[in-house]
Amino acid sequence: MSGLADRIGTDRLRQWLPLVTLIVLVIIVGTMQPVFLQPSTLLQLASDTAVLFILATGVTFVIMLGGIDLSIQSMASLASVIVALTVARLGYGAFALAIGIGVLAGLLSGLAHVRLKIPSFIATLASGGVLYSSALVISGERSITLPDTERAYQTWITGTPFGIPNVIIIGLVVLLVAHLLQSHTRFGRYSAAIGAGEPAAYASGVKVSRQKILAFMLSGGFAALAGVVLAGRLASGSPTLAAELLLPSIAAVVVGGTAITGGVGSIWRTLVGALIISVVRIGMTFLGVNIFAQNIVFGVVLIVAVATTIDRSKIPIVK
Length: 319
Description:
Strand order of the largest sheet: 1-2
CATH class: Mainly Alpha
Radius of gyration: 20 Å
Structural class: mainly alpha
Number of domains: 1
């Protein structure tokens, strides 16, 4: 009985620890740099977090199943290149094209994982290489600046109605849609069941393969949306535009409390995790930490988060 009580207490601690961590970090950074707590800085923080959150949202669906998607940064970069190359001819259709290709790439990764029985990290690592190479080829291995005449198509990303950047509104819409998918649909319930115990879910009649393919399609689509938003904010597309976002996005999911082994987590937790990563990044910037050295910190944070949230009962033997 005491063992059950201890486990419940541990689960509650894991549930609230990310939020407590976020609050403590905000207090620490705000104390060291009072400018951090100014409304303009907080709005900038939210704007910067939006892209990371959108990218992390997609991979959350895959991680909830116990899988991983290592192609998201390549898909985001490819989407930015597609937008930069086609917006002059297609207008707003360029954004839809980029997201559609993201969904298609996710479909192909899902099929490779499910039909060919390839582990998700291998399937998505390979597809990420294909996407990255495709971005290099179609861009001519260079960054492409959006023409000034086409900047009007970016206003849905760069605008600031009522003083609130549109990118924050886009992030909130993604939060709402992803929350509804995860908490109020069979897809979300089945995903949690598969992550908690795939054999039991399969025996219960859940179409596991279909759920996995849908998750990868969502991951690809949200990764492309993140790339679209990046292209709009930076007015350019590049094969390496999102190259530094893979580790922070996965760290955001796990730091937020979603177990890397699947079955436990939520989009709200991913939001908290993304905010933690952004606050840590800003804190390190204030302290003068080199931008390339920041990934060292994110790597350590990821290891600690995985060690804290992982369900070791699912992996009695670690290979």
